[in-house]
Amino acid sequence: MEPFSVQITVRGYELDTQGHLNQAVYLQYGEHARWECLRAAGLSQDRLIGSGVGPVALEVTVRYLRELRGGDVVDVTCEFEWGEGKTFRIRQDLRRPDGTQVAELTGVGGLLDLTARRLVADPAGRFRSLATKPELMGL
Fold it and tell me: Between the CA of residue 83 and those of 7, 50, 89, 97, 118, what are the distances in Å?
C-alpha cells in the first residue's frame, strides 16, 4: 500500500526573509498530514478525545534537502511504523509533484491516556480498535 499523502501549496505568509518556506512550517505540514491520515482512518480529534486518548509527539527530526518557495506544491506523506512497547515511529517525506524530495521528517510518537497522563501500553492495538480504516495507518 502506498503511504498516505496530502498535497499542500506553499502560501506567501509562510515564507522567511529569503523567500523560502520557514523552517518551522515544515513541522506544521507534517502535523497537518498526520492529522489528515488519522482523520481518513476514522480517528477525528473528537473521537480520540471522547475515547480518552490523544496522540503525542515525543521527538521530531527534520532533514531539509531542497528549498520550497511561495506557490510551490508539495506532497506530504505519512507512514506509521509499529513495534513493541508504548511508542511508534512516523516517517514523512515532502516531495514535489515531479518526485523531487525536499525534506524528510522522522519522529517518535505515543498515545496518551488523557486521564492517567501516561502513554498507552499498546498504541497500535488502541488505534486499531478505534479506527474505521486502520490500514491507512499500517495496522
Answer: 28, 26, 8, 31, 18
